[in-house]
Design brief:
By secondary structure, this protein is mainly β. About 5% of the residues lie in helices and about 40% in strands. It folds into 3 domains: about 55 residues, SH3 type barrels, CATH 2.30.30.100; about 100 residues, Thrombin, subunit H, CATH 2.40.10.10; about 90 residues, Thrombin, subunit H (Beta Barrel). The strands form 4 sheets. It has a 7-stranded antiparallel beta sheet with strand order 12-11-8-9-10-14-13. It is globular.
């Protein structure tokens, strides 16, 4: 089918989406490179520089960032990276881009999810997934040439953990010369109500499961913690897995859901800003194997008591 390139009014530039040069691949094999200024359910509006055209959505096979685009270079912050120049793509396309960074975390008493943030094998998960455990394994799923490969790592060290924020940092030790695919961290300041998000994890042990939803509220107060409320379906086993935006950036760590008769679509994730603070200050939460449920332990202050003669008997 031929695509009619109808010239649109300059008013199309009022779209709220930031235009970034992308290459649009059509089913017939043709390619069009331009700035997508508006995405509709049935149409893409693309600025070619000399004219603005409409492309029917059903004629598009895929969209990729163009080398000619204004793509910003990844920025490295200690253990994690950000990629502010990423463009939004579909959930299906994102799975191919960031799915390999999602892992399954197992202990003798349960399992959860996690994601790799550093090429050397640093993994983020929930503290409650590995609390009280020393035998931790991580399973990576990667697409081989002809089949899906499961790579198991059994030498996993706890680097830091915090029971209040419910975040833990792990390090895969038996990596050999492997370089891991990582998931970049996004920005909390860019989150909006109604924004599309998706989760990848191992609910009930069903690895590589994907669920999609929207952000219901960016700052819901739950038991003294500010969490992201979403409609993304999560279940036991999703804990510690990433909540992605459509740029494939981690904007939250899946943490809990509310359950009850008639309760649906109430899931919560740790804000990415909380995760970044934890990673930057991980020395304060350094794991002490003598006290497996938290980081460093501090002695309680001495307690004062009054004896029968009214004298202070504290040591």
């Amino acid at each position: 089918m031929r695509i009619s390139a109808s010239i649109l009014a300059v008013a199309a530039a009022t779209a709220t989406t930031i235009a970034v040069a992308e290459t649009i691949h059509l089913h017939g094999g043709a390619e069009i490179t331009g700035d997508i200024v508006l995405r509709k359910a049935d149409t893409l509006i693309v600025d070619l520089g000399f004219r603005v055209i409409e492309i029917p959505a059903d004629e598009v096979s895929s969209i990729a960032a163009s080398d000619a685009g204004l793509t910003a270079a990844p920025e490295s912050f200690d253990l994690y990276e950000t990629e502010p120049g990423r463009t939004e793509i579909s959930v299906k396309e994102n799975i191919g881009r960031c799915g390999e960074a999602v892992v399954q975390v197992r202990t003798p008493t349960g399992l959860g999810s996690g994601f790799v943030i550093h090429p050397s094998g640093y993994v983020v998960t929930n503290q409650h997934v590995i609390s009280g455990e020393h035998q931790i394994s991580v399973t990576l799923f990667r697409q081989g040439e002809n089949e899906l490969e499961q790579v198991h790592f059994t030498h996993v060290r706890i680097v830091a953990m915090d029971s209040w924020s419910d975040i833990a940092l792990l390090k895969i030790e038996d990596t050999g010369d492997r370089t891991f695919v990582t998931a970049p961290l996004g920005s909390y300041d860019e989150l909006r109500q109604g924004q599309s998000v998706f989760a990848v994890g191992s609910p009930l042990g069903l690895d590589r499961s994907v669920s999609e939803g929207i952000i219901s509220l960016t700052n819901r107060l739950i038991e003294g913690r500010l969490l992201i409320q979403t409609t993304t379906e999560v279940n036991p086993g999703n804990s510690g897995g990433p909540l992605f935006n459509l740029r494939g950036e981690v904007i939250g760590v899946n943490d809990l859901k509310l359950i009850g008769l008639g309760v649906e679509g109430l899931s919560f994730a740790i804000q990415v800003s909380t995760l970044k603070d934890f990673l930057r200050n991980r020395d304060a939460f350094a794991f002490d194997p003598r006290h497996p449920n938290a980081g460093f332990r501090y002695l309680s202050p001495p307690r004062h008591s009054t004896g029968s003669h009214g004298k202070d008997e504290s040591p």
